[in-house]
Amino acid sequence: MKSVVKQEVLALNGDEAVAYAAKQSDVDVVAAYPITPQTIIVERFSEYVANGEVETEFVCTESEHSALTACLAASVTGARAFTASASAGLALMHEMLFVTSGCRAPVVMAIANRALSAPLNIHGDHSDTMTERDSGWIQIYVENTQEAYDSVIQAFRIAENTDVLLPVIVGLDGFTLSHTLENVHVLADDVVKKFVGTRKFVNVVNHEGKTVPFKLDPDNPTSMGPIALPNYYFEFKRQQEEAMKNALKIIPQVNREYAEISGRSYGDGLVDAYYVEDAEIAIVCLGSTAGTVKAVVDELRADGVKAGLLRLRTFRPLPVEKIVNTLKNAKAVAVMDRSMSFGGEGGPVFHEVRHALYDTDKHPHIVNYIYGLGGRDTSPMQIRKIYEDLQKILRTKHVETRVQYLGLRE
Amino acid sequence: MTSKEKSWKEISPAGVCWKASTQFLTGDWKTYKPVRDLEKCTRCLLCVLFCPDGAIHWKPEKGDIEFDYNFCKGCGICANECPAKAIEMKLE
Amino acid sequence: MQTETEWKFTAKDIAEKPDLFLSGHRACAGCAPATVLRLIMKAVRGPTIVTNATGCMEVVSSIYPYTSWATPWLHTAFENVAANASGIDAAFKILKKKGRSKHEHVDIIALAGDGGTYDIGIQALSGAVERGHDFLYVLYDNEAYMNTGIQRSGGTPLGASTTTSPAGTVIPGKLENKKLIADIMVAHDMPYVATASPYYWRDLLVKVRKGLEVNGPAFLHVFAPCPRGWRSDPAKSIELSRLAVETCIFPLWEAVNGDYQLSTPSKVFALAPQKKKPVKEYLQVQGRFRHLFTPKFEKLTEEIQRVTDERWKRLLKKCGM
Prior knowledge:
The structure holds three protein chains of three kinds.
Chain A: E1 8-12, H1 14-24, E2 29-32, H2 39-50, E3 57-60, H3 64-76, E4 81-85, H4 87-102, E5 108-113, H5 127-130, E6 138-141, H6 145-160, E7 168-173, E8 182-186, H7 189-196, E9 203-205, E10 211-213, E11 223-224, H8 233-262, E12 271-274, E13 281-285, H9 289-302, E14 307-312, E15 314-316, H10 320-326, E16 332-337, H11 348-357, E17 365-370, H12 380-396, E18 403-405
Parallel strand pairs in A: 2-3, 2-4, 4-5, 5-7, 6-7, 13-14, 13-16, 16-17, 17-18
Antiparallel strand pairs in A: 1-8, 6-15, 9-10, 12-14
Chain B: E1 19-20, E2 32-36, H1 46-50, E3 56-59, E4 64-67, H2 77-81, E5 87-91
Antiparallel strand pairs in B: 2-5, 3-4
Chain C: H1 11-16, H2 32-42, E1 48-52, H3 56-61, E2 66-67, E3 73-75, H4 81-97, E4 107-113, H5 115-119, H6 122-130, E5 136-141, H7 181-186, E6 192-196, H8 201-213, E7 218-223, H9 227-230, H10 237-246, E8 253-256, E9 259-262, H11 264-271, H12 279-283, H13 299-318
Parallel strand pairs in C: 1-3, 1-4, 4-5, 5-7, 6-7
Antiparallel strand pairs in C: 6-8, 8-9
Helix pairs in contact in C: 4-6
């Protein structure tokens, strides 16, 4: 076990922490477009560039669509690429998210989670990244600014792992995390640089019949992004799914390796189980609100209530096995969703957790709480109410309302 | 179902192409075939430059041009542009 | 702007260069864009990366597992080839700086049709040029969204019948004029903008070279007839590219740092205006203009002639002639 390195404590908000992590990760190309609440990431990074603190080509593209395109093109040319966006910007990139994962380019993108229009709203919720669930990107949701810093560094290792080769989104709640100052323990530059290492390239067979590295190189020409007709398209999608399966092993591995140098680990990398293994009532939650839930769990446990929290850190790939194991004793589960799937009778996380638990013997009651849309704050009292509802379900063995809206004015 | 196509495990990721298009012969597309009058031809090489399919080659070792009917689609550009009117499009 | 004199471009030298755009692509018989691509790749001077927008040339040259590209080649989407080029340019610059690239210089060529340039692609193109990336953007203009079925684009000329601007009983095809894309690019204050036509192959090749030699962005607008979409004889695709210049519908010029200069093939018609051919000669060999030769719509040919003459006059003024 390597010894934990000495770390500096800086006061950084989520955006600054992300920029700092990118600075240390030997990123080659950053192509980005500003959008609230991610602006500080690009602004801070451009300051690093202007002061010669990083060796990075910083491209101020004219739109987010071009930003991700430029990152993808840079990545397949052999460069390590990073970008950031939110809300409408991520939505504008939508087409390119699929192209990036289809091209197996290990781009890392920080998303300062923000609500989608209309109406316009600049505050935090998960509607922007939830909409990209199917895009083939790994999705990690962080609870605090420290985790934002740590996860961006880990993301490069996860993405570039040759068994994975999938792009990664690191989501941090808009304003709640992106703009809130917290103490962040940062590793030394050389430690991070060593941890992320240099990119390794898988080999592919090109049209000359030669086995060459997977990148655009005039010495070893490769044609990337062809049209694949019905006789081949399907096979490439299956390859992407296999990469997601491999990510289920790689993400915990990177989490462990990172813990060795930093002293910090986030659950097992996939899920963060907080007093939940023996819990009868549990909440499943993503992002910063999990912090509030943990505080409430502490209070309840002090009162002798067997309450727990399962924070899903990795949403894609969905850690089905972990969800099943962690909630094996839960009799009533409340899934919190910070986005909606209109007409779907519940939010996306709710759908997926139910799916994960469907085949289990124990079959807990599972209910949904839509919360925090458009940056609406969630109080500990509201969380307590959820646990009280769960206790009622235990007593009555009956679910009155499956989907509720926390903090909505009815 | 047997198929000569490769499985998802056998192909390189991300759709990197593994065959040059020169293995795909488009010559059977044509209805008309260019035939050259060797005497009229001045070897100006305009046909070599204008052919959309690169199906006419200049062979320096032979000092002459050669039609590659494996790729000629019979469009007739060569015949139309030839300044010496040395190429005729004949029904295949 | 003189190009490197050591580069020989006699027909023989060009013919002897191996094709980097390989045979066996699935373009239609008589496809001028395919000729244009073959010629462009003949002008390549060293390590080159090609990136292509979605469109005819991309699709016909990359049907998995086949590729017609002997150079490294990237396609991602339709509207963003200039952003592709930006990313490749940025990557190459930094990799070279960090000592991770063995190439002193790599030429980047971005290829797109009028589909991926005039309309959906103009944003990325404008942005990439404004940022000054080092690449050559080649627009092969077949004047409609040909790959998806001949729909009108900003590059479709006045009076042309396309599937979304069809010549009907009431409306005679497209009612708007062709967007002056090359002039828009000149307004970006960029190092090099030029127009070219495949019939004038030597002029085209020199312009490709000049574009590659520029240290920064260069834009080349190449006229590329499509027999399928234009309903013209496949054998006449190159002849049409000559007629377009002879009628001054598609004049050949270059703008070096904003200074317009008429190219030799078009200079002929500036110095001897009587040699300029009437647009009717060009229009009558294309099925997409067939309706203009009916009594109901023949007035439109006069309008086409008028617009052609007016634009030609404006160009002459810019060229100081």
